[in-house]
Amino acid sequence: MREELLEQLEEWHEEDEFLEIVNAVQDIPADSRDYVLINHLGRALNNLERYEEAVEQFLTVEEEGKDDPLWHYRIGLAYYYLEQYEDARTAFETADRLEPGDEDTQEFLGWIQSKTAEKPAEEEVPSAPESPVEHLHLSITDTESTDFWDDSNEALEKWVLPSPTEEQIESVEERLVFKLPRAYVDMMKVHNGGVPHYRYIPVSEAGAAEKKLIEISGMLGIGQEKKHSLCGEEGSRFIIEQGGYPEIGVVLCKCPSDSEIIMLDYRASDNAGEPEVVHVDKEDNYKITWLAPDFDTFVRSLVAEDNHRPNIDGPI
Question: Domain range holding 110?
Fold first, then answer.
């Protein structure tokens, strides 16, 4: 009976049915829940963003978990998202000591360091790319313009979906566990995914005379019908899980290289907040490079390969 329950809990976890796990474990009397069940419950609560409850559960088995790196990792994750960074640091450092070299643990330690370190000198702080189109009075919700989208036959076939309904938007957000930025949703209602004409974003690098250009190959639309969509066969969850990318949000754009992606980064907000936009490079130890404070700024910062965007009159 117990083995069947544990198998069911793992199956629900794989299917992202975290509430089912919580309900099943909480149906068991508290004095009958052992270490394994409490860890299933705490993990599910973390995935449901109920971090305070997760910490409470993990602390009930603190003594049993003191030599378990996974226990320290999971409670550290809860502390991190509660912004209790010193408690999180202690937990992740213990996890790293018990199981040296775990990439996820070291990644969280890096994020904690960036959250708690003193702000670097001004010349070293990445600055938002200068927008070459600020004066154009562009509106990303005005749509039929081909100035922004490259609607080739291939792009239309592989990337572009019908305008999403409110029900589809809610369904996708529920599956991703993140609320999509309003500006992105508005844009997708007009042109749902695709390949932009302007596929490069300039990035300032400390000590570099010229800005580096990061290229995208296409922007994922809202839906699941095509593999290049947020919940498609090769959508956000697939890319993150297959590539081992950090669990910081939602994949927004693919890049020509399979080792690079553009993500909506929710670390500085909650899952329903306004995400920043970042570039993640798997080949460079999953280096995260800040690109823009929000989706709207990111779109307006895209340029052609020659770092130029023509003076167009009209919407993107």
Answer: 2-116
